[in-house]
Amino acid sequence: MDSRLYLLDDDTHTFDDVSMLLQRYLGYSTLQGASIATLVHTKGKCEIKIGEFSDLEYLSEILQKEGFNTLLENDYEGY
User: Domains of the chain (ranges plus CATH)?
Assistant: First the structure.
């Protein structure tokens, strides 16, 4: 089963910080990064990747080392 990785809102990072992070580690475009930054800011979190738990766990650790807050949900059943 797949899992979900979320990026959580914080009061530390700018929209540009989020966009650059997503470009660096997920290969997202500037526009995708800006859209996700907006969602994180307005909703408190945004799903940034779906995949195998072990892969997302590793990515989550990297993002946390960069100072970002993440949430990893296991056993997501897609529709």
Answer: 2-76 (3.30.1390.10)
